[in-house]
Structure to design on (856 residues):
């Protein structure tokens, strides 16, 4: 993975930069010892590593502002970091950059059940937002699978989704306002406890901008009352096509399940070997979950079962109690762990129109043979977000590169059928160079023009999202301006 | 000056590229948009549904497509636009057909916005021509997409000042089997807000909360809507009624009557045929009664649990000055010859960012100039 050559001038001025940053931060909030900065050399895309120049861990919006102001003056690139769980390298540093971590900013600032909002500092983890309102039976809906560890800051940067977004939407649909610090240290407020923007919807473009437009330090989030209950049903088919038709028919019938998960045979086999959830051996397994009161759940499940039966399932298993519901989810929830047991794997994240599901799965199967690498598919079927897991051997020379090439081909296939490169993980460094497959030069230019306004010198997370060649002139302007 | 009526995206791009002065962008012409300077550019030639996949809950259509055409296609598959876009014609006394592009460009949403989101939350992708004549696409037609910056949200509600939409992809949702409305009579504004926020904070999936201080019979009525399958709606209606034991309750279970009642709110029918200015004030629900009291309005009513105040005020009354600083913003929807800005002025750093972004997309300042900025 190519990264820009570090700016030698900045490396040489490190002592001066560190001294200036130390002056505006508490004593333990700046890390510059190379032995300690190593802890920040990568995020969850661990194949690529590079220790940063230094790490700042501010505790307040004002400290973030002071740090950014200095970096702006010194021309230091800044890589914002939540919890470092990005699978796309969104928080990977370069040797001349400052990591600006918000992990110490994790307070709940306001909880307001009447207006159904919570205001938090963005270093707070996703799950602990729900944790703060759970005693009153409320929750924060977006639930990325890393929710125990991932921070709201990162969720906003990547517009994170989750298994339940078919009903509740992704981060952007649940984010009402932010306090954000621009690269020059200016603090701005966007949105709040009210709905919709007064003018241009800048909040809408901040969400999902991968830390390239500003550092979000506080967020106002929508909270919802928990449903009375939820129950899954497991449906097994002997072909992907039929499972795909069943999904489409369920949606067309007017039921809106909170989740429709899809697993293919390689995935089912791995999960069975690992978690022994008692899944039937078949080509395609669906887990469909609905919510509501017991009567409502019964009403919806009856309809779903009726539709499922029309497609002649190999098996249809309903959860009679919480224990059986747990068993139905057990295999799915352990899917990634199960794959990790048998192999190294790379997790992809493309989205496709649901109607293309059978074709895409068939093509992935063919490509798997061509590349000689196994692949298992887990899929949020309701919204078309695929997570193919490509199996490879990290210790085998050239296998990672082969795996990456296979992955790129799968993502190009997603674009070819009308989908996109990433549904919820973000572009980061991982899919940067594939952007030209989805977007024309004018499309990328329009996006980069936004960054020009927010961060004219391209200092915030500069080597991400856009192909290096496309952003080169802009990134070099900052260096030339020094 | 004759109006421009491009028949394709390429023709539109050429028209903008060769424009010598301001362009006034018009979809169906059902909303008046400020001073309406320059040559009229109509999007009606960019019409038609290009893709509709009911099983994927997705529709893609040209910006000039009449909304009625989209709604009819969805209706045939028992689906709908869940964000419930308002029809401005009755309030503004306009004719013409609302278009998809107009709805998207103005982020037009109705009562269900409080539960399921605004037009911007259902917009999956756009194609547009910017102020220099470049054709740009963003997003796509899938529900989960974080590939690059979300310019779709930026285009939603940008009122044509960033570019002229040519195509919009939308997420659609199934129509519910039935709907019902719990009506509470006689509440004052504060108690009504309390009742509505209580209903929204329940697990009963309420899809609309509105309060009319003067209902059809002249007395206050609070409306709480639920939708879904028959048994479920019946169950939730009773559960909701149980939240308000000492209130004067009525239950409306005829879906047609319920739909009519909510169209009354959605289209601001209480203010049809009146004179004066009409404002939409977006705020925190619990702040609404105090804000409404400051307006010296002829009449107000509340949608979104109070998060949206509709106010009818004497012509030219500067309600922003009366409100002072508050959490939210006020938009002048029907202006009777006043010089007040239609959109709420923003704090300096935000205004600078917005202006900077707008200038990137329309450096000559020719697209609906002055509409969003004073």
């Amino acid at each position: 993975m190519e990264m820009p050559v570090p700016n030698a001038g900045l490396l040489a001025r490190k002592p001066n930069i560190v001294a200036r940053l130390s002056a505006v931060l508490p004593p333990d909030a700046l890390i510059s010892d190379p032995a300690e900065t190593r802890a920040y050399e990568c995020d969850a895309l661990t194949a690529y590593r590079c220790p940063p120049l230094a790490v700042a861990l501010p505790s307040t919006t004002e400290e973030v502002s002071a740090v950014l102001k200095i970096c702006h003056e010194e021309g230091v690139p800044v890589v914002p970091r939540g919890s470092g769980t990005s699978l796309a390298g969104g928080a990977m540093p370069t040797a001349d950059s400052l990591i600006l971590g918000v992990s110490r900013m994790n307070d709940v600032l306001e909880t307001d059940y009447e207006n159904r909002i919570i205001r938090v500092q963005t270093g707070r983890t996703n799950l602990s937002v729900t944790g703060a309102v759970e005693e009153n039976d409320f929750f924060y809906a977006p639930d990325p699978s890393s929710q125990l560890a991932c921070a709201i800051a990162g969720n906003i940067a990547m517009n994170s989704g989750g298994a339940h977004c078919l009903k509740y939407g992704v981060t952007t649909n649940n984010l009402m306002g932010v306090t954000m610090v621009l690269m020059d240290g200016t603090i701005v407020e966007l949105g709040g406890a009210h709905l919709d923007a007064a003018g241009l919807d800048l909040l809408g473009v901040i969400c999902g901008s991968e830390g390239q437009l500003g550092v979000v330090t506080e967020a106002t989030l929508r909270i919802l009352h928990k449903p009375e209950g939820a129950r899954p049903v497991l449906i097994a088919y002997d072909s992907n096509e039929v499972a795909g038709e069943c999904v489409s028919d369920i949606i067309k019938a007017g039921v809106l399940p909170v989740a429709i998960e899809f697993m293919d045979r390689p995935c089912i086999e791995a999960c069975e070997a690992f978690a022994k959830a008692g899944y039937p051996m078949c080509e395609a397994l669906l887990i469909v979950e609905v919510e509501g009161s017991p009567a409502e759940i019964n009403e919806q499940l009856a309809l779903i079962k009726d539709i499922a039966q029309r497609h002649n399932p190999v098996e249809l298993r309903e959860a009679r109690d919480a224990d059986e519901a747990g068993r139905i989810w057990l295999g799915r929830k352990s899917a990634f762990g199960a794959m990790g047991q048998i192999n190294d794997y790379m997790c992809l994240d493309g989205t496709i129109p649901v109607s293309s599901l059978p074709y895409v799965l068939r093509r992935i199967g063919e490509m798997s043979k061509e590349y000689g690498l196994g692949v298992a598919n887990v899929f949020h079927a309701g919204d078309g977000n695929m997570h193919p897991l490509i199996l490879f051997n990290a210790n085998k020379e050239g296998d990672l590169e082969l795996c990456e090439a296979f992955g790129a081909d799968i993502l190009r296939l997603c674009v070819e059928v009308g989908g996109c490169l990433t549904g919820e993980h973000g572009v980061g460094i991982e899919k940067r160079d594939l952007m030209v497959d989805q977007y024309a030069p004018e499309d990328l230019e329009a996006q980069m023009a936004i960054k020009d306004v927010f961060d004219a010198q391209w200092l915030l997370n500069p080597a991400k999202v856009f192909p290096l060649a496309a952003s080169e002139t802009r990134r070099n302007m900052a260096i030339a301006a020094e | 000056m004759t109006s421009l009526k491009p028949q394709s995206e390429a023709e539109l791009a050429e028209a903008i590229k060769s424009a010598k002065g301001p362009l006034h962008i018009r979809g169906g012409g059902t909303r008046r948009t400020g001073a309406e300077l320059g040559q009229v550019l109509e999007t009606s030639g960019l019409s038609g549904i290009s893709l509709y996949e009911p099983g994927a809950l997705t529709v893609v259509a040209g910006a000039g497509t009449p909304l009625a055409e989209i709604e009819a296609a969805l209706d045939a598959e028992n689906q709908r636009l869940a964000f419930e876009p308002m029809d401005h014609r009755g309030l503004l006394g306009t004719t013409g057909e609302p278009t998809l592009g107009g709805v998207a460009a103005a982020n037009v949403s109705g009562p269900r916005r409080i539960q399921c989101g605004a037009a911007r939350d259902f917009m999956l992708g756009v194609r547009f021509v910017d102020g220099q004549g470049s054709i740009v696409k963003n997003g796509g037609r899938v529900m989960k997409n974080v590939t690059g910056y979300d310019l779709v949200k930026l285009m939603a509600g940008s009122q044509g000042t960033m570019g002229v939409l040519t195509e919009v992809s939308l997420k659609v949702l199934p129509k519910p089997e039935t709907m019902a409305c719990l009506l509470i009579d006689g509440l004052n504004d504060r108690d009504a807000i309390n009742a509505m926020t209580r209903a929204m904070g329940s697990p009963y999936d309420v899809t609309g909360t509105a309060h009319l201080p003067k209902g059809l019979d002249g007395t206050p009525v609070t409306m709480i809507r639920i939708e879904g399958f028959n048994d479920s709606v019946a169950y939730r209606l009773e559960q909701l009624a149980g939240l308000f034991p000492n209130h004067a309750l009525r239950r409306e279970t005829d879906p047609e009557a319920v739909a009519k009642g909510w169209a009354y709110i959605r289209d601001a029918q209480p203010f049809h045929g009146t004179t004066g200015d009409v404002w939409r004030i977006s705020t925190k629900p619990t702040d609404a009664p105090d804000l409404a009291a400051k307006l010296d309005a002829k009449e107000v009513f509340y949608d979104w649990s109070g998060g949206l105040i509709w106010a009818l005020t004497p012509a030219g009354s500067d309600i922003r000055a009366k409100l002072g600083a508050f959490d939210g913003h006020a938009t002048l929807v029907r202006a009777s010859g006043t010089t007040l800005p239609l959109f709420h002025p923003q704090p300096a750093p935000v205004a600078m960012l917005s202006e900077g972004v707008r200038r990137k997309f329309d450096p000559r300042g020719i697209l609906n100039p002055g509409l969003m900025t004073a």
Q: What stands out?
A: Chain A touches chain B through 96 residues (CB under 8 Å).
